[in-house]
Amino acid sequence: MAFDVKGFRTVDFMSNPSGLAGANLGVHKYVTNDDTAAIETAGYFNSLATRVKVGDHIDMTLALATAPMRRNYIVSANAGGVVTIAKQNVA
Questions:
Q1: How far apart are CA 70 and CA 63, in angstroms?
Q2: Residue 64: helix, strand or coil by DSSP?
Q3: Which residues pair with 29 in a beta bridge?
Q4: pTM, whole model, 2 decimals?
Q5: Cα–Cα separations (whole angstroms), residue 85 to 3, 25, 59, 63, 65
Q6: Using only C-alpha atoms, what is the Rg of the chain?
Q7: Could you read off the pLDDT of 4-31 as tens digits, one per residue?
Q8: What's the 3-state SS for 12-56?
Q9: Cα–Cα distance between 33 and 1 in angstroms, integer?
Q10: How far apart are CA 37 and CA 34, in angstroms?
């Protein structure tokens, strides 16, 4: 499947120790029927390039319709419209 913005919400912000304007990190939630293989596919989150930044957290509920699971990711790169995420809980 593909990213569906209807399942994505920004729920909070965390202060960045740098104190620089605009440096706060976003805390996001995402719910989808897609599984880990789908959301970890390159380009899955590219439509969020203007909404997320490196260091933002995304707490996800995946495979909702089949075998629901929760996973946490961090935005590890966001350049040229390409958003990359990295697993934070790998067990």
A1: 9
A2: coil
A3: 9, 59
A4: 0.89
A5: 13, 14, 11, 18, 23
A6: 13
A7: 999 999 999 988 888 777 789 999 999 9
A8: EEECCCCCCCCCCEEEEEEECCCCHHHHCCCCCCHHHCCCCCCCC
A9: 8
A10: 8
